[in-house]
Design a protein that fits this description.
The mean pLDDT is 90. The chain starts with a helix and ends with a strand. The protein is 46% helix and 14% strand. It is α+β, with helices and mostly antiparallel strands. The strands form two sheets. A five-stranded mixed beta sheet has the order 2-1-10-5-6. Strands 3, 4, 7, 8 and 9 form a five-stranded antiparallel beta sheet that branches. Keywords: Membrane, Transmembrane, Transmembrane helix. This is Molybdopterin-dependent oxidoreductase.
């Protein structure tokens, strides 16, 4: 039986091997060299690491640990980190494609597996490539808020981020001798492995084109969060200054299912604490001392913009209600459904004098799409945590 199996395997190998070699020769190009893979790979690794670090910070802000004290300064910290997250994610898309193109002929090497370590290496690369492609794809879809997949974006995006970074670490460890040998041009020349011109483009031309593609993708989208690039924002779905009261909106009142009666004259903001429950209607909030602050709205999709807010300082409102923010605060929206209809705020934000229950935006009463009659605005927090259409605040012990 083993002889029959062996002969069958040998015949199959005889037929497949020429096909694999032909495919390898067709896909091969002098530009697709270790040097090219290293040059593009270090750019891609940088983008992945920036994306991972900033994404992890965003996750911590959205799911804060009770023991962790989060920074409220600088006020634009999250605007910077999340802008860097999306910018590096967008840049990673052409870099990832270029990296895969540069190593594509290796897919057709024969024999496909030479040893157990080689098998494990190929499996780890397959996991890394698959996870990276899915991670970048769903990240780009999240920017435009299109979710054609049946799984949770946030949960999957975080899990895949760990898989990508773990796979990248293993890959770099395995390929470290090759990376060291081709890290610098003079090292490559010393080993006699300098690339010739490619079939269509030289290696330098290819790397330049990849860099230009990544830079163009960034320049034509980063204007959604970088003021200086705002005039060049062609492809990002949000534009600075475009929206009600000159500020973009992610989720409108209609999309959130806000009924007019729920924010009508009968509306009141309830504050629940150990001291009891106090209700403040809109007139009562307006009679309280008002504070003006300039704070950004920075959303996980990457867009951000600073705006002028006016309202009651949260610490003053809590003091009037006889509440002390010794623990996390829970904000409940009029919005009945949605992942952030209820949000939690660590006490350090509640104590910050810039944190407001905002009633006005850019000099006029809040537009309904911006959270009328009242919303939260705090320094350094994701936009999804800046609860709109406030209904209640619960102060925990």
């Amino acid at each position: 039986m083993s002889n029959v199996t062996g002969r069958a395997a040998a015949r199959l190998a005889e037929r497949i091997a020429p096909l694999m070699r032909r495919a390898h020769d067709t896909a091969d190009d002098p530009v697709k060299s270790p040097r090219t893979a290293v040059v593009v790979g270090r750019l891609l690794a940088t983008a992945f690491l920036v994306c991972f670090a900033t994404g992890l910070y965003s996750h911590v802000l959205q799911h804060p640990a009770s023991w962790l004290v989060l920074p409220t300064r600088p006020v634009e910290l999250y605007r910077f980190t999340q802008g860097a997250h999306v910018i590096s994610g967008i840049a990673a898309a052409p870099l990832l494609l270029a990296k895969l193109w540069s190593v594509f002929p290796n897919l057709f090497t024969w024999p496909p597996v030479r040893s157990l370590p080689h098998l494990l290496e190929r499996v780890s690369i397959a996991v890394l490539v698959g996870a990276a492609l899915v991670e970048v794809t769903i990240g780009l879809l999240n920017i435009v808020q299109w979710y054609p997949f049946p799984f949770s974006f946030r949960t999957t995006h975080l899990a895949l981020a760990w898989v990508v970074i773990g796979g990248l670490s293993i890959h770099v460890g395995v390929k470290l001798p090759v990376i060291a040998r081709h890290w610098r041009r003079r090292d490559e020349d010393r080993h006699g492995t300098s690339d010739a011109a490619g079939r269509v483009i030289s290696r330098r031309g290819f790397v330049t084109a990849v860099g230009a593609a990544a830079a163009s993708a960034v320049v034509l989208t980063a204007g959604q969060s970088v003021d200086a690039l705002a005039p060049m924002n062609v492809f990002a779905p949000r534009r600075m200054g475009v929206g009600p009261q000159g500020l973009p909106v992610n989720r409108t009142a209609a999309q959130a299912g806000i009924a007019p009666a729920a924010v009508g004259p009968a509306w009141a903001l309830e504050v629940h604490s150990s001291a009891g429950t106090r209700a403040f209607d809109l007139d009562a909030l307006r009679r309280m001392p008002q504070t003006d602050v300039v704070l950004p709205i920075a959303c996980v999709e990457g867009w951000s913009q600073s705006a002028s807010w006016r309202g009651v300082r949260l610490i003053d409102l809590l003091a009037t209600a006889g509440a002390e923010p010794g623990g996390p605060l829970v904000f409940t929206s009029v919005q009945a459904e949605g992942a952030f209809a209820r949000t939690t705020m660590p006490p350090e934000y509640a104590r910050d004098p810039l944190t407001l229950v905002a009633l006005e935006l850019n000099g006029s009463v809040l537009h309904l799409d911006h959270g009328y009659p009242a919303r939260v605005i705090a320094p350094g927090r994701p936009g999804v945590m800046q609860t709109k259409w406030l209904r209640a605040i619960e102060v925990t012990a």
